[in-house]
Amino acid sequence: MTSVTENQLVGRSVARREDPRLLTGHGRFVDDIELPGMLHAQFVRSTVAHGLITAVDLTAVRRVPGVVAAFTAADLGLGDITARLDRPPAEFVPTAMPVLARDRVRYVGEPIAVVVARDPYAAEDGLEAARVTYESLPPVTCEEQALAPGAALVHEEAVRNTLVDVSLFATEGIDGIFENAPCVVRVEARTGRQNALPLETRGAVAQWDAREEQLVVHTCTQIPHQVRTVASRCLGLDERAVRVIVPDMGGGFGLKCVVGREEIAAAAAALRLRRPVKWIEDRKDALSASFLAREQHYTARAAFDADGRILGLDADVVCDMGAYSCYPFTAGIEPLMAAGEMPGVYKVPAYRVRGRAITTNKAPTAPYRGVSRPQYVMVVERLMERAARELDMDPLEIRRRNLITDFPYTGVNHITYDPGSYLESLDLCEQALKEAGWYDRQAAARAEGRHIGIGYSCFSERTGYGSAAFAARKMQVVPGFDLSEVRMDTGGAVTVTTGTMSHGQSHETTMAQIVADALGVDLAKVKLHQGDTDRITYGWGTFASRSITVGGSAVRRAAVKLGDKLRAIAAAEWGVPPEETELARGRVRRRDEPGIELTYEHLADIAYLKSHLLPEDIEPGLTATAAFDVTTDGTFSNATHGAVVELHEGTGQVEILAYVCVEDCGVAIHPQVVEGQCRGGIAQGIAGALFEQITYDAQGEPSATSFMDYKVPTAHEIPDVTIHHLETPCAFTETGAKGAGEGGTIGAPAAVLNAVNDALRATGVELDTTPITPETVHRALTSPALEQTR
Amino acid sequence: MNDTSGLGDDAQLITLDVNGTSYEVITAPRRTLVDVLRHDLRLTGTHVGCEHGICGACTVLVDGLPSRACLMFAAQAEGARITTVESLADADTGELGDLQRAFSDHHGLQCGFCTPGFLMLAQGFLTERPEASKEEIREVVAANLCRCTGYQTIVEAIDACATARRAQRAAGTEETSCN
Ligand code: FES
Ligand code: FES
User: Fold this and answer.
1) pLDDT at A545 (0 to 100)
2) What residue in B sits closest to A503 (Cα-Cα)?
3) What are the two backbone dihedrals, phi and then psi, of residue B62, each rounded to the nearest 5 degrees?
4) Is the CB of B111 under 6 A from ligand 2?
């Protein structure tokens, strides 16, 4: 071991490197970029949900003062964006998403033409002058319509409007298990269509750089290298002729982890016009015409023995993916996640699942934070609660009997779960709510006729998806590994590059902590660079809570390699083998005589400026690169959430009185950042449980086009969250860390829904669908059953 | 013709007082205050999250009061004192102000996009009501949207700043009274 443990930074909540610039208004977000001669793009968008385009007339647009150009798909002649799974046609139907709609539109808001003007106001004026005529087709706006015999087809090639249809596992004898089980419970659940809603909308600034022969695209994306690939292919450029640079990003949450059509179109316009072009999405487009998520329908049942042990799980999941498959994940992202991982934290001996992605005339979907896990956790936790009621058991006791406790555990879904603290987190969560007096207060409130409920959710979250795990999904483009380069300059300062892309997760701080520890240098000596495809060969970006597990491991490996090189140079100086040396606070020293040491500055001076002193087998310079991939099934963070809610009779409002989260993400690099991820995630989970939903009317018109009709919760609705940490280090990441980005969002809907159902206990009403609206709660509270109990 | 300002025949010359500096801007009447601040004066710390007055990312102080800069035309701000996030740190040293430090200490920001709006909201509010309780602060924080933090640490940061300011003032008064 050569690592330096004194003054260790990992595990400490050091001051965030990102903060000073963001707090002083000196961040650089995409809309802050201003280039000489820059033009502004906006999009002519479809006003119908489903139709054939009969004519696009941009003549009047081009006459609007300030408008410089306007292009249709035919004008730009771009390639399509097509994401694929390597599955047979019965399981997956690939569909092409054109950058601009050509002859057919499939949702309200679909981009048809790009208008480029001297300022954003003129671009908006230009949009109003566009004339598009359509021959309407019947819109497909819900699952029932999509799957109905003889339904209109969103894509001619997708029969029954089905893009993905997989039936998995089907444990032998599962039907018999259900027939003979003493207890079978069912849940039918629906979850609302949501917007991940980063506060910064999408946007891009593209410019042709004639000297570098490169199209430079500044864009707020979680996946810069994938945007580069798609841009180069759609535009017919070599991939090296596209450089994607990501500035500061105002959140993403998955919405920015797919390639957007508009960023490609803006780049195409810049290439054509040889002038910088900026596109900033407005909130209306962001809400209704970008990427949505989460609209799922579960029909599930679970069999239990008389002691509450689960015998089998049988589920049918239909995910409404809207009009197109997103790149690179495809429309399989939601159903494959749900089908593959639904048994979750429980020892489920028999499992059968059918997962489908259907296509409808709604805005397409992207993998929003948690991806299907908020929903299937909610369904499984509802099944647990229902079985507990049926068997007259304590709802936590039934969970305890079923939680995985012996690790590693290989599930019926063929996934091996690495060690976690499933049971311990549940115990601690219950204890925390008990000690805070919530059970007593609930009893007292009930006696007063008030409706207080306590609900839990237990879950784990796979965070270390390596290429093996993604390949198992049969993605044609297989994410998984990541790269890092760590470089020391002539003065001993360290630059780190990574293929991951922080957008609020504090990687400039946490990755620097990892490197500073590995090399034994001060945090201030280390600077992270990310989000520039010219600075690192390849990367898979930030999603699926992968950055610290995968990216952080690559970063640490590269730093250790660089340390090895420093030791080799010092060893050569001393004429001893490198094994006789170690790193210590900015120096290499002799193991046998720790008093003999050389500073990094001295070694860097040799490596660059006195390279004639280096032995032949050591190359000049101080850089090291490393890759990391997860070759096992991955690592799983876990948590238990506990929520206390009160239902208000008059209004049907659900008020969250208390919220406890007991989480285990392995080694926490920066505990405060982990807590921030939990709290922010929980807020988004609560948003889905109680408030947010975009619906569509029969014409396929979205209900939400502004914050007036899409309720984003504020500090009024989001409670304070008490967090407890457990730590089960990951055995195979370089730092022992597991990921922490999504857990909060995953656990919250189930905990809130269970708490609401607990509060409704006397009414006989059980709810399984989110968002839980005040109307539903009000109706439940005025149910006759409740009257009888009074 | 100026290629980037998109000025029409109705362009007007206005004078804006921003962070104590007086700026002359030639602008179209329909241009919002936030666009002029960001794109004409290049004070890009003030952000835009909705352009319809809900998210508060564009919050600046107009004559000391938190205001949505997306809902005002720049011309309407003539004659008023406008204060933006760029004013909060020490102009000479760049050292963060106490409110900014409190946000950092409490991890009241993640992506930082909403942060200038919350800072200006809090700055205006605490000047008006230095004795504000944590509950009052929470009420005020509910005026803006943040998608990252879950708000708790924003409330805590502002409360900690208010508490520290009160303690400092109390110490200051004591000192005066002792002398
Ligand atoms: S941008 Fe002004 S309130 Fe949202
Ligand atoms: S910190 Fe990202 S929106 Fe508030």
Assistant:
1) 87
2) B111
3) -115, 115
4) yes
Q: Is A199 in the pocket of ligand 2 (CB under 6 A)?
A: yes
Q: Which of B35, B58, B147 to mutate to test the pocket of ligand 1 (most atoms within 8 A of CB)?
A: B58
Residue A638 sits in the same domain as residue A777: yes
Whether B48 is in the pocket of ligand 1, judged by its Cβ within 6 Å, is yes
Q: What is the CATH number of the domain that holds A500?
A: 3.30.365.10
Q: What is the pLDDT of residues A261-320, one digit of tens each?
A: 999 999 999 999 999 999 999 999 999 999 999 999 999 999 999 999 999 999 999 999
Is B114's Cβ below 8 Å from some Cβ in A? yes
Q: Tell me which chain A residue has its CA closest to the CA of residue B95.
A: A20
Q: The domain spanning residue B142 has which CATH number?
A: 1.10.150.120
Whether residues B97 and B66 share a domain: the answer is: no
Residue at A36: amino acid letter: P
**Dihedral angle over CA of A721, A708, A781, A654, nearest 10:** 10
Q: Choose the residue to mutate in B37, B38, B55 for probing ligand 1, maximizing ligand atoms within 8 Å of C-beta.
A: B55
Q: Report pLDDT digits (tens) over A100-117.
A: 999 999 999 999 999 999
Amino acid letter, residue A77: G
Query: Which chain A residues contact residue B151 at CB under 8 A?
Result: 683, 714-715, 718
* Residue A504 Cα, gap to closest chain B Cα (Å): 4
Task: Name A725's Cβ contacts closer than 8 Å, sequence gap at least 6.
Answer: A662, A663, A664, A668, A671, A674
Tell me the chain A residues in contact with residue B123 when contact means C-beta distances shorter than 8 Å. Answer: none
Give residue B30's domain range. Answer: 1-87
Stretch A37-54: mean pLDDT, rounded? 98
Structure tokens at A315: 């589920």
Count of domains forming chain A: 2
Q: Which of A490, A622, A491 is nearest to A568 (CA)?
A: A622
| CB–CB contact B47 A679 (8 Å) | no
- CA–CA distance, A461 with A123 (Å, rounded to integer): 44
pLDDT at A7: 78
Question: Which domain-ending residue is among B87, B121, B147?
Answer: B87
B124 with B99, same domain: the answer is yes
Note whether A453 and A527 are same-domain residues.
no
Both structure tokens of A577: 């083998």
Mean pLDDT of chain B: 93
Q: What spacing in Å lies between the alpha carbon of B53 and ligand 1's midpoint?
A: 4
pLDDT (tens digit per residue) in A432-441: 999 999 999 9
From CA A146, how far away is CA A158, in angstroms rounded? Answer: 11
**What digits encode the pLDDT tens for the residues A381-436?**
999 999 999 999 999 999 999 999 999 999 999 999 999 999 999 999 999 999 99
Report CB contact under 8 Å: A23, B96.
yes
The verdict on A701 and A570 lying in the same domain is no
Q: Minimal CA–CA distance to A194: which of A773, A557, A691, A659?
A: A691
A672/B150 CB distance under 8 A: no
CA-B57 nearest atom, ligand 2:
3
